[in-house]
Write a structure and sequence with these properties.
Helix 1 (3-26) runs antiparallel to helix 3 (52-80), helix 6 crosses helix 9 and helix 7 crosses helix 8. Strand 3 and strand 4 form a beta hairpin. With 300 residues, the chain is of the alpha/beta class. It has two domains: 1-80, no CATH class; 118-297, Alpha-Beta Complex (Protein-Tyrosine Phosphatase, Chain A). It is elongated and about 70 Å long. It contains nine helices and seven strands, in the order H-H-H-H-H-E-E-E-E-E-E-H-E-H-H-H. The two termini are 41 Å apart.
Length: 300
Amino acid sequence: MGAVHGVYLKYVGLSAISFAGYHMVMGNIGPMDPLPASDRMLLATSGSESSIMPLLRLGTATVLSYSTLLNGVIAVLFKLRKGMSLIGKDKKEGTIPLWSYLLFFPFHIPTYAYTYIHTKNGTMKPYSKDAKPNEAVAKVPVPVASEVLPGWWVGGCYAYQLNKQWAGIIDLTVEFPEKCRSNTLRYLCLPTWDGVPCSPEQLEKAAQFCIDARVEWARFKEKGAVEGDTPDILIHCAHGRGRSTTVMCAALVKMGLFANYEEALEKGIKPGRPVCKLNKMMRTNLAEWQRIYIDGKKGN
């Protein structure tokens, strides 16, 4: 099963679990007695201790029904590749407003929980060009970000834990605020749903951003305003596996380091971060980007 389908099913699953939970709390299924009509319930139990439990059940059922609707809508928007602005992320500063957390808490809470657990417990097989098929290799933790080539980093939303100074950051998340914003000279936010890649036009914008960020860093370096010998570019999504890999492929090809995105993936990225991969949609967009912006400009 591809990564896109897996992420889509995550939203569908949240909606389905919420739907089942709603019916259990209402007593339509499971061991609980059916909840009476709200007006009769409140009249029958008002002024007594027995009113607490029905009201708690009613409140829980309301939250679960909202979660069913919200995550169902997000699943539809995901399939349509639309609605990335729904969450309200500020593209300039990378912040998510308080109203979004309050209004969309059935989306934010499980997203934060899942990403935290996945980041803390994710493992991968170390890359080895001499590894044999089915050879048993001890797995190692997946870093919050990996330097796949000197100055080129692929990572997830916890990359801020590295506490580095960046020449440029490309943030591809809809669902998380940018916590490295104050540690970078340049910032580009291209919010996309988890598993959904940038369009060819966005890939070109991101690749050019990387070039411009490195040029700007060099100017600051001449003035003594930055330290280090290499401008560090961070491209991150939530987990540092798919969306960020897609953009990194385009950036490395645009820089002339590799001839095509397949070579950039296999030779430039996966040796440094073996968990990186591309789904069908990502490969399609990269192929189209390369056809238009790389192959289409050869000889001009």
